[in-house]
Amino acid sequence: MLFRDWRAQAYTRHLMETEARMSREAWVRATDASDIVHGEVISLRTTVLDHRRSTEILELRTALQGQVTALQGQVTALQAQVTTLQGQQGLAGDPTQPGLPEEAGGSA
């Protein structure tokens, strides 16, 4: 009877040790899987943020290009006005009209 109890006890101890070892291995696998998933989430988050930044940069670039185009149109219109005014001054070339004073911007 004592021998049977010893064998049952040894078998129970073996089962408990096996269960403890398997539990530790499962914990290590779960921790590794968690670390892998965490890394993937961080990588995906970085990708999403980079995509958002790229989209924002493209939107800002498009808006800026529109502003540059509008400013170029304004510059062209102003150049046309200057040309028109210069033409009017040339046609109206009144010799009694004094030129610019020397200190105000005449040739030095």
From TrEMBL:
Name of protein: Uncharacterized protein
Domain of life per record: Eukaryota
Stretches the record annotates as Disordered: 87-108
Organism: Tanacetum cinerariifolium (Dalmatian daisy)
